[in-house]
Amino acid sequence: MLSEYVVSSARRRGWVRYLPKWLKYLARYCWPNAIHRSEWKDSSQAILACSKASPAVTDRRVCVVNDWSFRHVYYEAACRELGVPYRLLDVTSFDWAEQFTADDSCIYFYRPFVLSAFIRSIYEERAFCLERVLNKTLFPRYDEIWPYESKRRCISLLELRAIPHPRTRVFFSREEAYGFLETASYPLVFKTDLGAEAFGVKIVDSRRQAERIVRRCFGRGVPCNTFDPRDRNRGQVLFQEYLKDVREWRVIRIGDSYFAYEKGKQGHFHSGSKITLFGPPPPGLLEFSRNALDKLGLECVSLDVFVGPEMRFCVNEIQTYYGATESNAICYEAGKPILLEAGQTVEMMVHGRTGRYLWTAGQWVFEEGDFARNAGCNLRVKLAFQRLGHPLPGYWV
Question: Is this prediction's pTM over 0.90?
């Protein structure tokens, strides 16, 4: 697109930094796709450049479904490194139905775009069609994709499966919300349904402040992301109890592999801080997470878990995909800064060793190795073939 070309050229020449803030905001409002996708495309090319192609180890071809933010490139890099032939298809193309109906790939690696409520609905609709109508093998499965970046859906799953989580109330009625605020204890946490990296999350210190948020949610709406300022949280409001003095750990499960690291805090929030604290997980954290994910029936997601006093755990959010700990992250291990190489992703480090935890013979065993390659997509590709009944060489290596 012409707008994307113009924005990309302006960024490379350094012109953007000379624009006033109001003009940058106007540009993002008028051309949100062009501004962001130009940045994401440049980043994706760097990721591919760090991957090395290997000889094919299987004659079964897979399909990598295009993601608007170009994060599907991790699956491309994984397939290149593992020797898996693949093709790239766009689920938002006007002729997507013809393309996917005619395609005979054995697995469809799917990373939905979730930074816009409208575009997310398209990816979700077409994920349903691929798995439930065309009977394609989707990875992750539709039920693993469904709660992705929807705080309302996550809360529903946690409530129905009786998994410990911060007390949360979702209101679709202005009157019910006002009634709740009359007796609520403050501070509260307000969250928009859609929103990543703590955007759309606010600490509410008083009833007056909370009522103002309710009026906006049932009026003009509250902005819920940085991708498109026109995307607003309307017609609903979500309030959650504020938990003081908690730490937050991210626990990632990919099949039988578990990873965990602490999310550093910046201001009021852990999410979006881009600070990663590596070290041994607290006792009981992995077992709590394994039990919760077994109840949910999910084996390819991450949990954000609050760790309170006396090792009390509760789930804050469920994420199908997550921000990878890459070379641009701020990482510490045992209080010392860790520098990651270009193209390297690390999701667990214990006593200076990268690796994963496996649940084996009734106990947790740490296995050293580079299991988080390409934001975990190497392991995801291997798990997908394992599910298919045609494991790739070296699955347990």
Answer: no
